[in-house]
Design brief:
single chain; 179 residues; alpha+beta; 5 strands; 17% strand
């Protein structure tokens, strides 16, 4: 695992193609991936002292993609752009400090992701990443801007979902990781 590149778990390649028959209930396919995700998060904490604090869900269906492989080819490109922006492009969003957008030091874009196909949501990717608190507003704007330019249709509000949590105490960060 290289924290500068990220970790993509290749479950999307084994997903069932569309058919006219309804899908039968099945056990999760992420049984082997759960320890990999935990190990990746542990390595990030051990090597950098940072915790994954943001969950991003990117929906292929809501962005207009019908081909999962085409959508997945864009994910590394998106991560590369976000990494470039996190390292040196964030200053234009932070020139005027405020409570909502305070200056933050540049940092690498640490992330891991899992692709899955759900009955209701269709094909989508969950991305865990490290996001400084002061950059949330600018990061969300940058992500939306990038996906609007690369989507096959005008994205709906459900195309991207951001959930951020910044524990204030070290003990709370540890509890989030362990439990």
């Amino acid at each position: 695992f290289d924290p500068h590149v990220g970790l993509v778990l290749p479950t999307w390649q084994t997903q069932r193609k569309k058919s006219s028959q309804p899908m039968k209930p099945r056990p999760t396919e992420l049984e082997r991936e759960t320890p990999k995700l935990f190990n990746a998060a542990s390595f990030l904490i051990w090597s950098t002292g940072k915790h994954f604090n943001t969950l991003i869900t990117v929906s292929a269906k809501e962005l207009g993609f019908t081909d999962n492989a085409e959508f997945m080819k864009l994910m590394p490109v998106w991560h590369k752009e976000m990494a470039r922006w996190m390292m040196n492009g964030t200053d234009r969003f932070r020139r005027r400090a405020s409570r909502k957008c305070s200056p933050e030091a540049s940092q690498p874009h640490y992330w891991i992701s899992v692709a899955e196909h759900a009955r209701e949501k269709g094909f989508h990717v969950h991305v865990l990443c490290v996001l400084p608190k002061g950059l949330k507003k600018a990061f969300v704007a940058k992500a939306w801007d990038w996906w609007v330019r690369h989507a096959k249709q005008v994205p709906t509000k459900a195309a991207l979902d951001f959930e951020c949590r910044w524990p204030t105490q070290q003990r709370a960060q540890y509890a989030r990781h362990v439990y």
